[in-house]
Design a protein that fits this description.
Strand order of the largest sheet: 4-3-6-7
Order of helices and strands: HHHHHHHHHHHHHHHEEEEEEE
Oligomer: single chain
Structural class: alpha+beta
Radius of gyration: 23 Å
Mean pLDDT: 89
Number of helices: 15
Helix content: 40-55%
Largest sheet: 4 strands, antiparallel
Distance between the termini: 70 Å
Strand content: 5-15%
Number of strands: 7
Low-confidence stretches: none
């Protein structure tokens, strides 16, 4: 087991080591019968919808995901006691933080102060989430005090300087969940409040994000994923294939990590057809519905409830799992394969299932329902909001030959505006803007070639929205 702990310490720096988990599939036989039945149910929720999905690759990809998850769960069973295994993982996170600080400074130099902290193979959002997990480990595990202090300080700094609101959400959920069984959870919540105060005092571009209510374009991705579910409600399109249907809404068709792109490294041509494999719905419920339909979503929820039921009574294990599930409301922190981030969720799940007892089935069902409610909060909030009067178009200027257009709205207060250009397909022009002021947006060249539609999409500012509040369309071009 010492060798496994050593590999677990190295895996954050060398993510391909996670592939060794496939050798641990047989270890799931050591789980209690209830745990094996839950994994079998999860496998059926992956494989059966994939048989009837529209993409021929759906079933082999579903089989790969199931085997990989089984291997990760089996590895969690083999690692045994959470404290020993997670202690080694904390060492790996500490080294990961150091490389993240070094890489950000190496790429951005003095400009790193004005940018979000990142890592060569983690986005700022994911890196910040890992910072929050390291801070939870420092609070709960009995490391030697100098290392414990350094891990906590670095983890908190990563969470703060990455500007990861999803990571902060996960940290608060994990701290609150741990409070059910350990008083250290109260310390985690207090530290979270301290981090927010520090973010306010620092007043850096990255830390200002913690006080912004907009969703950075997630609502558009949610809408696209929901439309895929509407088209394939029972089967979805298959694991890893949803990204092809929602790609280009939030980012381009293919993108690398921000630090790599800052060095001029972009997707090579051979990788572009596969860019959708790492495009996610930014909500685990919508991701599961789009990939596996209703059955896929139910299977994932039952597995999450079973993990939590097995971890019931263990503040550290329950808190870490809850942190992953909390962030799942606005991101996809345990989609796998990943740069050894999502894999840890299933390692924790294996440790939890090893403790699962048959009498906890009602608890697991209740916790699964709680997870479903948590992931649905953005959409329940939308449904509860009353509709107001739609904004009206004051003026729209669209030059024939590219350049920049301009638009202004009457009654745009409280909305954010996205501008899309549509012909056979649609693409977003620029990012998004407050709708109460006139907006200038970039236009592609050769606009005169055929008529197109300019679509103005308005989202409620500060609202967690699944669908846009209003559409305004104007025909442009000749």
């Amino acid at each position: 087991m010492r060798g496994l702990a050593f590999l677990l310490a190295l895996a954050p720096l060398f993510p391909p080591l996670a592939g060794l988990a496939l050798f641990f599939v047989p270890w799931v036989r050591r789980l209690p019968l209830w745990g094996q039945a839950l994994l079998a149910l999860y496998g059926a929720s992956l494989l059966l919808p994939a048989l009837f999905a529209p993409e021929p690759l759906a079933w082999p990809l579903a089989l790969f995901r199931f085997l990989y998850v089984l291997g990760l769960v089996g590895l969690g069973v083999a690692l045994g006691r959470p404290e020993r295994a997670l202690g080694a993982w904390g060492v790996g996170l500490f080294l990961l933080y150091l490389t993240g600080f070094a890489a950000t400074y190496w790429v951005l130099g003095d400009g790193a102060v004005r940018a979000r902290l990142s890592h060569p193979f983690h986005s700022p959002v994911g890196f910040g989430f890992l910072g929050g997990l390291g801070l939870l480990l420092a609070l709960h595990l009995r490391y030697p005090w100098p290392f414990r202090a350094l891990l906590g300080l670095l983890g908190g700094a990563v969470l703060l300087l990455s500007g990861s609101r999803g990571g902060m959400l996960g940290f608060f959920v994990g701290g609150a969940a741990a409070l059910l069984f350990r008083r250290r959870g109260l310390l985690a919540l207090a530290l979270g409040g301290g981090l927010l105060l520090a973010a306010f005092a620092l007043n850096l571009p990255a830390t200002e994000r913690f006080f912004q209510a907009h969703l950075s374009g997630r609502e558009g991705v949610w809408l696209a994923a929901y439309r895929v579910f509407q088209e394939h409600p029972w089967t979805g399109v298959g694991p890893y294939l949803l990204g092809e249907r929602i790609g280009g809404v939030l980012f381009g068709d293919c993108f690398l990590f921000p630090l790599l792109e800052a060095r001029g490294l972009t997707c090579p041509d051979w990788l572009r057809p596969w860019g959708g494999l790492w495009t996610f719905a930014h909500n685990h419920l919508l991701q599961a519905l789009g990939e596996g339909g209703v059955f896929g979503a139910v299977g994932l929820l039952l597995l999450a409830g079973g993990f939590l039921a097995g971890a019931w009574g263990d503040g550290l294990l329950f808190g870490l799992l809850a942190a992953y599930l909390g962030m799942g409301m606005v991101d996809n922190p345990f989609s796998v394969p990943s740069p050894f981030r999502g894999e840890v969720f299933f390692l924790l799940g294996g440790m939890a299932l090893a403790r699962l007892e048959g009498g906890r089935a009602p608890l697991g069902l209740g916790l699964a329902g709680g997870v479903a409610l948590l992931w649905s909060l953005p959409f329940l909030y939308l449904a509860a909001r009353p509709e107001g009067p739609p904004p009206a178009l004051r003026y729209l200027v669209v030059p024939d030959r590219g350049g920049a257009g301009a638009v202004a709205l009457e009654g745009g207060e409280g909305y954010r505006l996205q501008v899309w250009l549509c012909a056979e397909g649609c693409r977003r022009l620029g990012w998004e803007w407050p709708a109460e002021k006139p907006v200038r947006f970039p236009l592609p060249e050769a606009l005169e070639e055929g008529k197109k539609r300019l679509v103005l999409v308005l989202f409620r500012e500060g609202g967690l929205a699944l669908r846009p509040a209003f559409f305004l369309e104007e025909e442009v071009g000749r």
